[in-house]
Amino acid sequence: MAVAGARSCRCLPPCGGSMSGPLAGLTVLECPDGVATRYCGRLFTAHGATVLQAGPPDATGVGYGGSASAAYAAWLDHGKRPVARDLRQALGQAVDLVIAGQRPADVAAVDAALGAAGASNPIRLGLTWFAPDGPYAGWGGCDALIQAMSGVAYATGPKDGAPMLPRGHAPQVVGGATAFIVAMAALIGRDAGWRGRRIDVNILDANLCFSESGAAGLALTGDKVVRRGVNRFTPTFPGGIYQASDGWIGVTALTPPQWTALCDMIGHPELARDPASLVTLQRLNAADAFDRVLVPAFKTRPAAYWLIEGQGRRIPLAPVPDLAALPRTPHWQGRGSFAPVPGTASAVGPTQPFRIEPSPAVQSAATEPATAPDLPLRGVRVLDLTMGWAGPLATRHFADLGADIVKVESCTHFDWWRAFDGPMDGDPPPYETRPSFLMVNRNKRGITLDLKTDAGKALVRRLAARADIMIENYAPGTLDKLGIGPKALAGATPGLIGISMGAFGAAGPWSGFRAYGSTVEQASGLPFVNGEPDDPPTMQHVAYGDPIGGLYGAAACLVALYGRRHGRGGAVIDLSQVECLFQLCADAIVAQSTQTDLLARSGSRHPLSLLRAVAGTVAPAAWIAVSVETPAQWTALAALIGCPGLAPLKENEPDMEARLRAWAASREARDAVDRLQGAGVPAGPVYAAQDLLADPQLVAAGFWRRAERRFIGTHITPLAPYRLDGRTPPLVCPSPTLGEHNGPVLMGDLGLSRNEFAALEADGVIGTRAVMGSLQ
């Protein structure tokens, strides 16, 4: 979608895989199996590490078939060096990290080889579908099952039908990116004296980032996730995709000012006159009535008109390009977001979603502490100027891995995830009880500053001078205007790593666009991967882009931090959350680039699966997901459900699907899943977020813990989705109350006297003298 009058884009090239990248000097041995291990290896290669691939990877179930599968495999594996499959021989080379997976037996084989080789130095990263010691340890896994069991599939698809399984390898990419985060932390920690050597990540736990807040929120409030239909998700309305006169436009109006501006923009200001309509959940409950006005209104103008008009009114509207148009979009062309896939005739795939620009260098001589640190990032300091979901999730990974996080909130514009509509006063204060805020801010310290005052900005600069990393995801340009954005702080503090996490990046004609996680998904191309043929472009989540942006924000900072520890100085990082989602649908983007016709959509089915379906069971609203990837699995399923003569052919999928549904209809979900998995057929329950609290695997692993916090008392919180030497990082403290650590940080860390502190408090520079004003 070209935009008239858009300013030119001067972007840095994506961080590439040359030997001069920040990870140059690292050697990684990848034992290729599924997409997750190969994608994790790709992230190392892309930033300069040498990745040795032990034997040829298995191409089963990768991509979209034929030349598209070959092209996606080339995208995953470009730049890696093949070595002998024999692990003992491969381990004869000096390596820093070994990536093993995706079955527990494969990880165990690597552990045995490491022991036999006497290789004590390499860190072993095990990446499996499920935890290797829980009830699901012997289960067969696949992307469809993770979509079902992580709570993502439940709300996707029509309200009155079965849930729809999103397509593609997104769950494995999320698992690979999560594994990369903890592996990078471990490598940094090793240089600082951390002695851990075994990391375990499972793909199911990694994908709980999408639904953990919903699950824990249910335990606190009793609010359950309900299915509302295509492109409708609690609590946001409108928060979907509408047809324009020439295409599609993504629309999100969450706050009262956004809804009022939207109604005025489409020529129906009367919609916002009812005070009840200002609350997003009340609008959602009356969505059919509102859509009778919104749907025809958006059809009257082109998508480009709505995009510019809406963004000009501070409404998060998004372009919704199909997969063919996406790489041709001027904004993404200017940012270098796509590039030819080496080794293919014409395939195009996404580049890395962040750009690292060196800032003034400082050579910091790392000294090994007197005692080994208990967590790999112990001693790292992070200045957290984030709000919402994406930025706080990025800093939560640092907090879980041992870093000291100081979260700074503005006195008058505190983290909007504390409250975005409804009353702001009460007992307890509503902004201290929101489950979403609690989930992503554990293990942090929190302070309040008035960032518009000179004194407040001076304190931010002093905090930055003590920090290793500064992370922000304010509305584009907000902190730059105040003189405390990443570039300004990194320029004033040699060695500081600063990152901005804008939806569309910090450079380019759309860099100033306002966005939520829904906006990010709408703009990413993913909606053209999912849905039935006649559906509108179909979203998967109320804010799919947020947790993904958080993952890559953490990954980008760790890449730069490793580079700084090895003499490369500080950095300024420009991350685009939309580009982060390109990684999740890279298989579809690559496939689209190999053909002329638009990639076909077919609901839960997938071109490479012999069967991929959701079936209802005897329990009310209980579904199971089944995915058959191989003839052997088909044969096992046919024998189990009583049709052994049905040949494993794609054209027999509708018949097998009908027989599966008939078989499942008379069984309880757990019994059906156990029988299928026992026969070697990948199957699992389709969970709503609230179901995750009682999942046997998560309960056995102690994934849900209880924390005590002022205002709400005991509440459930999830743990980190990885283990270090068999142990999950601890829950040290719950999320901070507003300004809870003003004294310890400002007087303890910065050394302010009691009189100085009192004066700042009296002047309103610190404290909570005002409630939330206009939202970012």
UniProtKB/TrEMBL annotation:
Keywords: Transferase. InterPro entries: CoA-transferase_III, CoA-Trfase_fam_III, CoA-Trfase_III_dom3_sf, CoA-Trfase_III_dom_1_sf. Residues 344-370 are annotated as: Disordered. One of its GO terms (molecular function) is transferase activity. The keyword Transferase applies. PANTHER family: L-CARNITINE COA-TRANSFERASE, SUCCINYL-COA--D-CITRAMALATE COA-TRANSFERASE. This is CoA transferase. It comes from Vineibacter terrae. The lineage of its organism: Bacteria, Pseudomonadati, Pseudomonadota, Alphaproteobacteria, Hyphomicrobiales.
